[in-house]
Specification:
Helices cover about 40% and strands about 20% of the residues. The chain is of the alpha+beta class. It is globular, with a radius of gyration of 13 Å.
């Protein structure tokens, strides 16, 4: 399966069950994180930016002080793809 192929709802739900911390909101993979302070949150965003650039897959990020909200979908396919789950797993490794 191509990484840029849109997943079905059943495929998304099956994969989501194995992806700690993520949920489905507004047809996107969604995760909210809290850090000790702004510097730690921004450091996380900087590390995430390097990973996302290498994957050529860029998340929607929102940051307020120590909070970071991430939404993932694949614009090319108009939904969630395997690539979104690959990036979400990489984000989980970064958080752990």
């Amino acid at each position: 399966m191509s990484q840029r192929q849109k997943l079905t709802t059943a495929e998304i739900n099956e994969r989501l069950a194995d992806l700690a911390g993520w949920s489905l909101q507004n047809d996107k993979l969604h995760r909210e994180l809290r850090f000790a302070d702004f510097v730690e949150a921004f450091g996380f965003i900087s590390q995430l930016a390097v990973i996302a650039e290498k994957m050529n897959h860029h998340p929607a990020l929102f940051n307020v002080y120590n909070q970071v909200t991430i939404d993932l979908d694949t614009h090319d396919v108009g939904g969630i793809s395997t690539l979104d789950f690959k990036l979400a797993a990489a984000i989980n490794q970064l958080v752990d």
